[in-house]
Amino acid sequence: DQQVKQNSPSLSVQEGRISILNCDYTNSMFDYFLWYKKYPAEGPTFLISISSIKDKNEDGRFTVFLNKSAKHLSLHIVPSQPGDSAVYFCAASARGIQGAQKLVFGQGTRLTINP
Amino acid sequence: NAGVMQNPRHLVRRRGQEARLRCSPMKGHSHVYWYRQLPEEGLKFMVYLQKENIIDESGMPKERFSAEFPKEGPSILRIQQVVRGDSAAYFCASSPRRGDGYTFGSGTRLTVV
């Protein structure tokens, strides 16, 4: 039962263009969403998050959009840089539920930025 | 201010042996989480601990796996009688308070031969 899905295993984008990574979820109890970036042989690094009371959150080159009715979120990176090449994980949690602390991760999308 | 420290980085065990994975949270962090990443998959929650207490172990396999976070010292994830299917990357994360964002360690890569 995959509650968080990233349907694109890989994405290749030209340097300077926009990268759009997508994520779908099925559990309507999720109220907090995060994106993590992971390099090989390292742990995931937090990038950006969004609460379900918002539909957009922006931090520098990174913007996350949330469409609750479609149970869909996306991460936009613009402009894309070679250092952005990594695996990106979408994660969700149900923070509103007492004691709920665990994150549910998608399978990841490998982003490659071509010079 | 060191980050989350996990050791060893790589661990090789023969089938039937025990594996002990250690995690020292960031200074000031009293909440620890363990996740497992199987090849080509996302991270899966295993267990959430505070000092001396297991808060949520809903992701832990029912047998062979245990975790602790003693009053002094690192958190330990223990896998008894390892099997090939236990081969994975095990990540620890910590946070200062419940509900705060995590900081992940670099992981321990367990290989069972």
Largest interface: A-B, 23 and 26 residues
Strand portion of chain A:
over 45%
Average per-residue pLDDT of chain B, rounded, comes to 92
* Biggest sheet details of chain A: 6 strands, mixed
Radius of gyration of chain B: 13 Å
Query: Which stretches of chain B of 5+ consecutive residues score pLDDT under 50?
Result: none
What is the multimeric organization of the chains shown? heterodimer
What spatial form of chain A do the alpha-carbon principal axes imply?
globular
Report the order of strands and helices of chain A. EEEEEEEEEEE
Number of distinct beta strands of chain A: 11
What gross morphology of chain B would you assign? Answer: globular
How many strands appear in the DSSP assignment of chain B? 11
Q: Which sequence of SSEs, written as H and E, runs from N to C of chain B?
A: EEEEEEEEEEE
Count of discrete alpha- or pi-helical segments spanning 4 or more residues of chain A = 0
Question: How many individual helices of chain B?
Answer: 0
Bin the helical content of chain A: under 10%
- Counting helices, strands and paired strands, the structural category of chain B is mainly beta
The pLDDT mean of chain A sits at: 93
What would you say about this model in short?
The complex is a heterodimer of chains A (115) and B (113). Chain A has strands at residues 4-5, 10-14, 19-25, 32-38, 45-51, 56-59, 62-67, 72-77, 86-93, 104-105, 109-114. Chain A is mostly beta strands.
